[in-house]
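Two records follow; treat each independently.
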Amino acid sequence: MRLPARLLPLTAATTASLLLTGCFSAASDTDGSSKGESRRIRVAMMQPPRSGLSPLSDDAFKLSRWSTAETLVKLDEDGDAEPALATEWKQSGRDWTFTVRDGVTFHDGTDLTAEAVVNSLTRAATASPKPRILDGVDMTVKADGDKVTVTTAEEDPLVPQRLSSPQLAILAAKAYKGKTVNPVGAGTGPFELTEVNGTSSATLDRYDDYWGGEAKAPGIDVRFVPDGTARAAALRSGEADIVEAVPVSQAAVLDQDLITEVPMPRTNTLYLNTEKGVFKDASLRAAAREAIDTKSLVDGVYEGRADVAEGLLGPALPWATGLREPAGGRAKAGDPAGRTVTIGTFTDRAELPEVAATLQQQLQQAGFKVKLEIREYANIESDALAGRFDAFILSRATVLDSGDPAAYLYSDFASEGSFNISQLADPAVDEALEKASSAPTGDARRRAIIEAEAAVLATDAAVPMLHERVVQGDAAGVADAAHDPRERELVTIDTRVR
């Protein structure tokens, strides 16, 4: 069991700090100070690049968080599309036409044109494998003057939201010369990626010809620090200005003025197998739901740094709470009568084994007998998807790449869903999910999504327990760092070190 944060030995933090000593260049401390402006921003990030910073992979989110690669569209707080490299767009059936912003240059000095947009989007649409946001989407792109037309095989109301994904960033032609996509010197953002040192570091300099104005910081120095204790120590010692993903166990021993907690669109959920076994009985699913004390999970395992779940969609989607009504139509709780259930989860997220142990105690107190099976995620996912557990604990992103939760709800709870751990096949749920998936964006779609959530909750196929938060560390001199629940922004044009 993990030691409480207040009991962690200080020597561990001190040792971790030594791992970072000298890892940021001397220029980080001095650049710009003689001019009275911000110095370079030192960032400690959790995960090193997995695919050489190719935007066609999850590395795209790093490029976005460093404000070096941009997309045609960005999302507002509610997940609605706003202009970025495209200034406007309109739909006509399966066609969406986007007007490309004038006066934008790539970091290599070439102009942003409709042809450059087509080049980037076509490379993404024909990639193998495709970026996740285009999974199952047949998309073609063509240029006409300063406009780009995106055509999908079926009418798709989410095209603008899809094009907001960092995996569909628009890069200069030079990025696509080789077999892999190389983003160095090829973006359009306020910071130019100038150097990448494998999985250890990256360097970005201010791009003076940025179309949106001049960045307040002269550059960014990034170090990849997978060890959470080391990242926290870097903030404590002053080795880093911005630290992403501070572990819950470390947050309590840091200066709380340096910590910001942001609700994530990620829900910790207990999926119950509705197809076979004990939880095929709706009354026993209800008994499990009633046995779970979610507040004790938040207070005990997450040390108060999470939010008790009222539904599948949490506070990172602020519109959900205002539309949600009390859940109804659920079965009454039955008697577990000592029936044995097996709960699976994985070790990759440090808190989940502790969640499993706590649930084991709570369900046993309610009359179930509970076995736990805990492995690495890569070794347990296939069994979970095949329905080999009575229940499975999963920390699940609820908006995926489009900023829209309908795709998550469909994949997890539709009869044909690709991630249907609950093995749910419910006609009422399927109907609600189809309605949500096809609804136009805006208020109508949000209402349909909440109706679909209610339909899922009525089955007790999933028990939402808590919504996770991202814990970010900002040194005392940092101003205007982004605190983004979708983790698309971190250092922006306005971020600086005072």
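The next record belongs to a different protein.
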Amino acid sequence: MFTGIIEAVGEIRRIEPKGQDVTLEIATGKLDLSDVKLGDSIASNGVCLTVVALSSDSFCADLSTETLKRSNFASASRGARVNLEKAVTPTTRLGGHLVSGHVDALAEVVSRESTGRAIEFWLQAPEHLARYITEKGSICIDGISLTVNAVDGARFKLTIVPHTADETTMKGFQTGTKVNLEVDQIARYIERLMLGDKAAVSEAQPQSDVMALLGRTGFLK
């Protein structure tokens, strides 16, 4: 579990294909690895990766075909910068929101504009995830806990203050940049719970039925 508050920006040092899978070595920059051991989790661009090898300034992780399919690591290259966060401890300040590191899909930056000292981004999410994104709700982009400031269909706006831009990879985001997207866990669990006994049916519930059920129970106005 993570909070989405980035601790360091690292860099991909090595990419080693292994059949359909990949092993990455990530140089960790200023991230303190003194309390990290084999088997621990480190969120890398919002993807929960398991440490399989460790040095004083880097770690290695294996990426499955599922991870490559859902994240921007499929197109990653040596030297690419990544946002890093170690897993939370019971005493960690929850400065962002609850982030699992289980990326849902890719989103795409569709516009970037400076507003005062801040940067405003509009991003396009996959249509099937739009129902989980709400104004003033939380969202995780490349591992960063952010507040959604406006929503227009499957598009949403983020306003990035200078500190966040300086301490993450967001300063380098441009129109067309593909980013890892994780929606708020609570929204997903509510939708699943509202299915009740229908959740046990093997075939997926049509979205229209789910939305009708949420409407009948007062969750949609």
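Discussion point: The CA atoms of residues 30 and 106 lie 27 Å apart. How would you locate this feature using only the token line?
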